[in-house]
Design goal:
This protein has about 170 residues and is mainly beta. The chain has one domain: Lipocalin (Beta Barrel). Helices cover about 15% and strands about 40% of the residues. The protein has an eight-stranded antiparallel β-barrel. β6 and β7 form a beta hairpin. This is Fumarate hydratase.
Length: about 170
């Protein structure tokens, strides 16, 4: 039985480790992910439960295409949280663009607040910066989706308005 020299054993071990790391750390293709088929489309929250009794509420509009998400938020508020020039009689829109992932029963959204054209917003009225939200998917069917915000436990009932087919684009 041939015994390897200890330095040769170390060399083979390092060579093996490097080959495993090279396979594991190879670059991903420069193309967007496919996302989840069941959620691809345009989803609207047509009404908010007990909205007439709330001091503020937000209606959601989501567009999921491949692994990307575009969000329109329409807020109705009886209380002015902003400068008078931003209050807009208690109704205003915000926009966000980013990516999403579904892990088990959770929808994870990582987005950035934008202008209406989905270009990054760095100043102005309302929120700027990151829109990071996790939602529990409590119900889902072919044309409806019910989410529960893990931040404030508000329920968001969405109706499918248009189905979208993912056509992956280069990044």
């Amino acid at each position: 039985m041939n015994k390897l020299h200890p330095c040769l054993k170390i060399f083979y071990l390092i060579l093996f480790t490097l080959s495993i790391l090279q396979i594991a750390c190879s670059p991903r293709p420069n193309i967007q992910g496919k996302g989840e088929a069941f959620i691809q489309g345009v989803w609207n929250e047509d009404s908010v439960a007990f909205s007439n009794k709330l001091s503020n509420y937000t209606k959601h509009h989501f567009k999921f295409t491949c692994d990307s998400v575009y969000i329109d938020l329409v807020t109705h508020s009886k209380v002015n949280f902003y400068e008078d020039s931003c209050y807009n009689n208690g109704i205003w829109k915000e926009y966000a663009k980013g990516v999403y992932a579904v892990r088990g029963d959770t929808l994870i959204v990582g987005a950035t607040f934008t202008h209406a054209n989905y270009k990054q917003k760095i100043s102005g009225c309302y929120r700027i910066g990151r829109y990071e939200k996790n939602f529990l998917i409590t119900k889902r069917s072919a044309d409806s989706l019910t989410l529960e915000s893990m931040g404030d436990q508000r329920e968001i009932k969405l109706a499918l308005k248009q189905k979208v087919t993912c056509i992956q684009k280069e990044l």
